[in-house]
Amino acid sequence: MTQFDLTDEQREIQELARRFTADRITPYAGEWDEKHIFPRDTIKQAAELGFAAIYVSEESGGIALGRLEAALIMEAMAYGCPSTSAFISIHNMASWMIDRFGDADVKGRYLPDLVTMERMASYCLTEPGSGSDAAALKTRAVRDGDHYVVAGSKQFISGGGENEVYVTMVRTGEDGPKGISCLVIDKDTPGVSFGANERKLGWHSQPTRQVMFDNVRVPVANRLGAEGEGFRIAMMGLDGGRLNIGACSLGGAQRCLDEAVAYVKDRRQFGKAISEFQNTQFTLADMATELEAARALLYLAAAKVTDNAPDKTRFAAMAKRLATDTGSSVVDRALQLHGGYGYLMDYPIERFWRDLRVHSILEGTNQVMRMIVGRDLLKD
């Protein structure tokens, strides 16, 4: 009807993801969380719908959709389980980096299995000593003939130990961002090892481990782009990753808003449903309004990233910051409306409260998002 509506095709994609979530994710997500189950088979079923290669080109076997369509898919799946949706997002980011920056050889060796999720991919940027200051990473790759010898470690890697492919930022040159390159490293390469599975507040349906490289020999043919382009490649990947993690917050928050609406209609106090209290209505109204505002900004940012707009990075940062902060705030109020029951694992709210908390930290903390936006506003 207007420029602000989804197209018929986008609604079909959204509905496909919603049906998949209702059938394959929502009924099982609580058990995955409680028992720390990594639902590999379910994730592979998502790949059958093309959700493992959402913005990988058709030539490489992907479905070549835009970033708005990707956000719709991630939002829909997060309605059932933000942790699982975020895992699929990270795999998509790594696959896109290979498709976008790899040569024909490396794309041919990796993408067929990544598209089907016969192999799964992790994104390796953060290190024990370099989180927000990603350009200070120390994992080093020294050229030795037609190989690099890689030594160092990466921290907080989603899929660590489970995934077969690691898209890894390494230092091949000078200090700072210009000395960073990007290598694709296989799990079974000699010298690759993993730390213990991290004991996390949330995101229990996916493993998170440290990845260690002990003089790992990686073919030069596994480099994405030229030497020194790794930081730029990593940041371009994060533009899309930030949109997706924001979309995961929107999906999780929408689920909790819906749960809260149903709960307050049923729960009675002082002789009437608590939905009849003005305070309840005002709280729900604010939750819904803030969620829609965050959604609108995220969809706008997604369109800018798809179109490669000059201000795409600023809008991706703004959208990620707003969506993740809003998502956590909405879930927190949904828990409050549930009272003591919201604190129990018998209800899904506490799981979403835990899962969404990390979204304001990963893919760049929300403080870093503010830095990105502020610097862009003040640049000459």
From TrEMBL:
<dbReference type="GO" id="GO:0003995">
    <property type="term" value="F:acyl-CoA dehydrogenase activity"/>
</dbReference>
<dbReference type="GO" id="GO:0050660">
    <property type="term" value="F:flavin adenine dinucleotide binding"/>
</dbReference>
<comment type="similarity">
    <text>Belongs to the acyl-CoA dehydrogenase family.</text>
</comment>
<dbReference type="InterPro" id="IPR006091">
    <property type="entry name" value="Acyl-CoA_Oxase/DH_mid-dom"/>
</dbReference>
<dbReference type="InterPro" id="IPR009100">
    <property type="entry name" value="AcylCoA_DH/oxidase_NM_dom_sf"/>
</dbReference>
<dbReference type="GO" id="GO:0009083">
    <property type="term" value="P:branched-chain amino acid catabolic process"/>
</dbReference>
<feature type="domain" description="Acyl-CoA dehydrogenase/oxidase N-terminal">
    <location>
        <begin position="7"/>
        <end position="118"/>
    </location>
</feature>
<feature type="domain" description="Acyl-CoA oxidase/dehydrogenase middle">
    <location>
        <begin position="123"/>
        <end position="216"/>
    </location>
</feature>
<dbReference type="InterPro" id="IPR052547">
    <property type="entry name" value="Mito_Isobutyryl-CoADH"/>
</dbReference>
<dbReference type="InterPro" id="IPR009075">
    <property type="entry name" value="AcylCo_DH/oxidase_C"/>
</dbReference>
<dbReference type="InterPro" id="IPR013786">
    <property type="entry name" value="AcylCoA_DH/ox_N"/>
</dbReference>
<dbReference type="Pfam" id="PF00441">
    <property type="entry name" value="Acyl-CoA_dh_1"/>
</dbReference>
<dbReference type="Pfam" id="PF02771">
    <property type="entry name" value="Acyl-CoA_dh_N"/>
</dbReference>
<feature type="domain" description="Acyl-CoA dehydrogenase/oxidase C-terminal">
    <location>
        <begin position="228"/>
        <end position="377"/>
    </location>
</feature>
<dbReference type="InterPro" id="IPR006089">
    <property type="entry name" value="Acyl-CoA_DH_CS"/>
</dbReference>
<dbReference type="InterPro" id="IPR037069">
    <property type="entry name" value="AcylCoA_DH/ox_N_sf"/>
</dbReference>
<keyword id="KW-0560">Oxidoreductase</keyword>
<dbReference type="InterPro" id="IPR046373">
    <property type="entry name" value="Acyl-CoA_Oxase/DH_mid-dom_sf"/>
</dbReference>
<protein>
    <submittedName>
        <fullName>Acyl-CoA dehydrogenase family protein</fullName>
    </submittedName>
</protein>
<keyword id="KW-0101">Branched-chain amino acid catabolism</keyword>
<dbReference type="InterPro" id="IPR036250">
    <property type="entry name" value="AcylCo_DH-like_C"/>
</dbReference>
<keyword id="KW-0274">FAD</keyword>
<keyword id="KW-0285">Flavoprotein</keyword>
<comment type="pathway">
    <text>Amino-acid degradation; L-valine degradation.</text>
</comment>
<dbReference type="Pfam" id="PF02770">
    <property type="entry name" value="Acyl-CoA_dh_M"/>
</dbReference>
